[in-house]
Amino acid sequence: MTPSERQLERVRYRRRRARNRGAVAVVSTLVVLGGLAVLITQSPGWPRVRETYFNVGDARAVLPDVATAFWLNIRLFLVAEVFILVVAIAVAIIRVVPAPALAPIKLLVTIYTDVFRGTPTILVVFLVGFGVPALGLAGLPTSLFWLGVIALTLSYGAYVSEVLRAGIVSIHPTQWASGRALGLSYGQTMRHIVLPQAVRRVAPPLLNDFVSLQKDTALLSTIGLVEALRVAQVDAGRTFAFTGYVVAAAFFIVATIPLARFTDYLTVRSLRRENGI
Amino acid sequence: MKITTSRGLTTIAALALALTAACAPTDSEGEADKTKATPASTSLADCQAADLPVLADGKLTVATDDPAFEPWFIDDDPSNGKGFESAVAYAVADKLGFAKGDVTWVKAGFNQAVQAGKKNFDVDINQFSITADRAKAVDFSSPYYSAAQGIITLEGSKYAKAASLADLKDAKIGAQIATTSLEAVKQIDPSTDPLVYDDTTKAAQALQNKQVDAIVADLPTAYYLTAAELDGATIAGQFQPTTGESEQFGLLLAKGSKLTPCVSAAVDALADDGTLAELEKEWLSQATDVPELK
């Protein structure tokens, strides 16, 4: 089967078009980024900015301390993540279960999501970090690490539960009906049929919240935890040079890139599966 | 529909144009002369309000942080002339020939004050300790105050009776970020790293919550905290910082500011004629019953 003349013409045209578009993209990138680079490095204040923010010697000096402190950010993130998922799934399920006896609990969790989604995370951190110990009750944690984890869990549990709830209610009612028709109980249908689909459907926004959480571990510096950002701040306070901030930022970026790429990959995959693109 | 190269080029041109329009350099702040902070060899006679290169004509713009804490400022109002640093600022302005009404106060947080680039003030007075490292980024005037460090604990804490710095070795210590106090903690050499707070109020809160056993702050701040902010707290002792430079406060100016020699000359004059000592007595009258810890 040889392609017709017209088909060959089409193929040629498409190739030409792809080449042209590629060339335009390359030139455009060079002009814009090159222009930006020239503008920045030619600006009158650039030598001062370079000295203050991009000093290699300063970066080397502060790197080990920031790296050690960043391990605390990672630990906070990993521990908080587990608790957040538990809280979020529980809250999401309570909000969708159609059991009238659960009404008071439903009311409470609705208030919880409303309040903690509406409160700035840094405020929650502050109130938990300084307020809970001030109560002086025995049995409450006093360690800053756990206070920080509690604060992040309260704040992010509300966000993530809403994401999961949206996933659950987006599953088509026929899925529920099929499950019940097969003789599964409500709980079994939820666990084996609805939840897996719901989680898969909201994976991208879910991972987005996790990236956000990774960065928000820096907010815990306000209650005295010395994490990567705080180490950079201490260094800046001592020397009035801000290279440490740039180093800390680099750590956060490097830590979130794998998650971000993974999110992209999942998004594309689910698009392909669901829409046959 | 064929996308042509010419259309792509038009887009590029438009982008490039937008870019240059959006960020043309504003001023030539980089031209500021790169001299090191000079000791005052300028005489006050050369520093009269009319000839000084200030931000607003005939006005001296002075910055400090918000909130402004006692005993440096009273009632969080720098313009009332009360509190040690407010009084010093007005005395300096007076030496330079500015009347009281010609002093304008603005707010500048720590980061604003020390950032490179244009400043929104002529001078900033906010308990800035003078160090060689910092002098690379900003100018300092001559010092107007030398402070010792105070250690604050709760009454009844076992550390309240510390007889030496070594007794505090196992204490959990808190301090404010970007202060000499935080550096001075190293002299105590505590077994756990110090906790770092955004401001003294948060550090005080942590002490009250028993999240830390002691906080270190310069002595005047320590007095204020124990007198006004904290219930049942006491100053366990004071010590002279020996790590790095001594604890001396200077007025902060932009790097290479033409005002620096004049402001330094004014501060030196105030030191010579005893004004600084008087103001210290008036606002920072320090009891002598705080034991010196070694």
From TrEMBL, chain A:
Residues 70-263 form the ABC transmembrane type-1 domain. PROSITE patterns: ABC_TM1. It is a multi-pass membrane protein. The chain crosses the membrane at residues 21-40, 74-97, 118-138, 144-164, 240-260. It is found in: Cell membrane. It holds the Pfam family BPD_transp_1. Keywords: Amino-acid transport, Cell membrane, Membrane, Transmembrane, Transmembrane helix, Transport. Coiled coil: none annotated. Its main location: membrane. Signal peptide: none annotated. Belongs to the binding-protein-dependent transport system permease family. HisMQ subfamily. PANTHER family: GLUTAMINE TRANSPORT SYSTEM PERMEASE PROTEIN GLNP, MEMBRANE COMPONENT OF AMINO ACID ABC TRANSPORTER. This is Amino acid ABC transporter permease. The lineage of its organism: Bacteria, Bacillati, Actinomycetota, Actinomycetes, Propionibacteriales.
From TrEMBL, chain B:
Keywords: Signal. SMART domains: PBPb, PBPe. The keyword Acetylation does not apply. InterPro entries: Iontro_rcpt_C (IPR001320), Solute-binding_3/MltF_N (IPR001638). It comes from the Bacteria. Gene3D superfamilies: Periplasmic binding protein-like II. Residues 59-286 form the Ionotropic glutamate receptor C-terminal domain. Residues 59-287 form the Solute-binding protein family 3/N-terminal domain. Pfam families: SBP_bac_3 (PF00497). Coiled coil: none annotated. Residues 1-24 form the signal peptide. The keyword Signal applies. This is ABC transporter substrate-binding protein. It comes from Aeromicrobium wangtongii.
